[in-house]
Design goal:
There is one protein chain. The protein is an alpha+beta fold. It has helices at about 30, 65-85, 95-100, 110-125, 135-140, 155-165, 195-210, 300-325; strands spanning about 20, 45-50, 50-60, 105, 170-175, 180-185, 215-220, 220-225, 235-240, 250-255, 255-265, 270, 275, 290-300, 330-335, 345-350. The protein contains eight helices and 16 strands.
């Protein structure tokens, strides 16, 4: 799959009220090397997007320039969130595509067209397990539906088979030249498992446009760092403690890479008193089994999030059979089990994240 990204818009003044500026200590001179003048302190801002914490840190720029860059990057993230909202009102977002007459070409924001293309590539690569057309399946299971109507029982029969058929990769046609997308009858777009990562990538593209080459962006557990980080080795990240362990899983270094975490207990489905992971295999229409969590790392955040979600669905055996075909090779760590004991770890190209 190719790795791409693209440009942005101006921040809305009202959004600036949401920002919290946090100035952190500069890296020690021992790590920073010879001083060329007064040190420039890093700037970190925090807000919320996609219902999760959003933070951006910029290093190496004058503080006023850094704040302007971060404000623009945060606004970009919020725009991607609005455009990708299933029941949103963005003029050129996916809600418009879902609400159009089937077979009608719909003009979409160029950023959403790029994201749809990327997600469709994932659908083809994962052999239909995870892609952008799971909207009908997700509603059937009670996922991502603002109506608050959850599934009353396990989806079965014709309703399930029709929803599975609606998620097939070839039911979405894109025309980048015309800037349009066309959805087949019965299908519905949902960019869950992709949109947060893409928003992180777009934020870093905006920061780059503002002259930043050393930055960290995170939305929840989808994160990406570029440049040398605080000490010249990249951005050090301690992974979280997951169920079954008492210590963090690992410590890794992120330099010009992204990382994403998915967990089976992340907003689980509750049907008939039973818990199910919120990750639906679009081939079978059934929730993922046997994986408690996945951490995936790749160059772009959209790919890291897409991989973490796909590997949650596919598991380590089917997943590893597909990962070898990707370039550059990603890194993946699976936590396997049913949640009743310490998970078994399975890794793919994981050690390269630990090399500083």
């Amino acid at each position: 799959m190719p790795y791409r990204s693209s440009p942005r818009s101006n921040p809305h003044p009202a959004f600036l009220l949401l920002l919290m500026v946090i100035t952190t200590a500069i890296v020690s001179p021992a790590l920073a090397g010879p001083a060329a003048g007064p040190p420039v302190e890093p700037v970190r801002m925090a807000a919320e997007a996609f219902g999760q914490a959003m933070e951006i840190e910029v290093r190496g720029l004058p503080q006023d320039q850094a704040r302007t860059a971060i404000e623009a990057a945060m606004e970009e993230i919020l725009e991607i969130e609005a455009l990708s909202r299933v029941n949103g009102d963005a003029e050129q977002g996916i809600a418009r595509l879902n609400g159009a007459a089937r077979g009608q070409a719909v003009s979409l924001d160029r950023r959403i067209l790029a994201l749809l293309s990327r997600a469709r590539d994932f659908c083809i690569w994962s052999r239909g397990a995870h892609g952008p057309l799971g909207g009908r399946l997700y509603r059937l299971w009670g996922l991502h539906d603002d109506s608050g109507v959850a599934a009353r029982g396990l989806p079965r029969g014709s309703a399930l088979s029709e929803a599975v058929a609606s998620a097939q990769c070839n039911r979405l046609a894109l025309d980048p030249t015309a800037g349009t997308a066309t959805l087949a009858a019965g299908s519905s777009v949902d960019l869950w498992g992709f949109a947060q990562g893409y928003a992180v990538d777009r934020a870093l593209a905006v920061l780059s446009d503002h002259g930043c080459d050393n930055a960290w962006v995170e939305v929840g557990w989808v994160r990406r760092g570029i440049g040398d980080g605080p000490g010249g080795y990249g951005w050090r990240l301690t992974l979280p403690v997951v169920e079954g362990y008492t210590q963090p899983l690992d410590e890794v270094w992120i330099r010009d890479r992204a990382i994403a975490l998915t967990r089976a207990d992340e907003e689980p489905l509750i049907i008939g008193g039973d818990l199910y992971p919120p990750f639906i295999d679009q081939n079978s229409g059934q929730p993922a089994e046997g994986v408690q969590a996945v951490i995936a790392s790749s160059e772009l955040a959209v790919d890291a999030q897409g991989l973490a979600t796909a590997m949650m669905i596919l598991g380590n055996r089917r997943g590893q059979a597909l990962l070898g075909g990707l370039r550059p090779l990603p890194s993946v760590l699976w936590m396997l089990g049913d949640g009743t004991g310490s998970p078994l770890l399975a890794a793919y190209q994981w050690s390269k994240l630990k090399t500083r």
